[in-house]
Design brief:
Strand content: 35-45%
Structural class: alpha+beta
Number of domains: 1
Order of helices and strands: HHEHEEEEH
Number of strands: 5
Distance between the termini: 49 Å
Radius of gyration: 15 Å
Length: about 140
């Protein structure tokens, strides 16, 4: 599973996030997938993820994610990634700043039958919001 899982996760980040192919979500994500850590509140299901994805792609239409490293064990794949994007839309509820930001994160994905069935996400939104000027650090 390890090579297949890593390949599937790399395809996810490349096609869904960098290339913006929303139809790949249905190809790679199980309809009953559970996604943790992307929004406040309870985990997202597939439809909730699609709403988050649309809002994020609106805010950062040129988002590009690079998978830096994957580690696999059993049905889990851990991913360390980095990204860039220009804040051009208000999809996240914040007015566009037209500034470019860099951000990093990690994701754990559980895979069954060739589909993502559960994901845990964490990324440095604080650094991203600071770069965009949304969060101001004290002098």
């Amino acid at each position: 599973m390890s090579n297949q899982g890593a390949t599937l996760v790399r395809r996810w980040f490349d096609e869904v996030w960098t290339q913006g192919k929303a139809d790949t979500i249905d190809q790679l994500m199980s309809p009953d997938c559970v996604v943790h850590g992307l929004a406040d509140g309870p985990p997202l299901d597939q439809n909730g993820f699609k709403q988050f994805y649309a809002a994020y792609r609106n805010a950062f239409p040129d988002v590009s994610i690079t998978v830096e490293q994957t580690v696999s064990e059993g049905d889990l794949v851990a991913v360390r990634w980095s990204g860039t994007g220009t804040h051009k839309g208000d999809g996240l509820g914040l007015p566009a700043t037209n500034k470019r930001a860099q951000f990093k994160g990690m994701t754990f994905v559980r895979i069954q039958n060739g589909k993502l069935v559960e994901g845990w996400n964490i990324f440095d939104q604080f650094a991203m919001f600071t770069q965009l000027g949304i969060v101001k650090l004290p002098a």
